[in-house]
Design goal:
The chain is of the alpha+beta class and 131 residues long. It is built from three helices and six strands.
Length: 131
């Protein structure tokens, strides 16, 4: 099966630790996206986001630097394997460059998800973190 991958980045005016902590907090993740999330900073734990539209499992954590988790959306077919999302946090001046690398996306969905990361994560994160 063919898959797609994408990479998107944004710089936010906060420390990497603040983004890392917010991404892995149900309350903060829900607040910065506007959709209900259930997530924690425990390797191996399951999570949901965007009112159960997204689900997966936390696979690797590097405190304040990197999060790797499986990711699947409601429109994935049962036969589609989970995709992978890697969140990278890099200190840039007085802010943080947040890069999302999303791989293993079912064919023809990459363009949609690339815009989705911008519209449903980056835009509300700018407001949440005050940029």
């Amino acid at each position: 099966m063919k898959t797609e991958k994408l990479e998107v980045s944004i710089t936010l005016p906060v420390e990497p630790a603040e983004i890392y902590k917010a991404w892995l907090s149900s309350k903060a993740h829900s607040a910065f996206t506007g959709g209900t999330a259930s997530i924690s900073a425990r390797k191996g734990s399951k999570y949901t986001a965007w009112d159960d539209y997204i689900s997966g499992k936390i696979l690797e954590l590097e405190k304040d630097k990197r999060i790797l988790h499986s990711w699947r959306a409601a429109e994935f077919r049962d036969t589609d394997p989970d995709s992978m999302v890697e969140i990278l946090l890099e200190k840039k001046g007085k802010g943080t460059k947040l890069t999302i690398r999303h791989s293993g996306i079912p064919e023809k969905l990459g363009r949609i998800y690339k815009q989705g990361w911008k519209d449903y994560y980056f835009t509300p994160m700018k407001a949440y973190f005050g940029s």
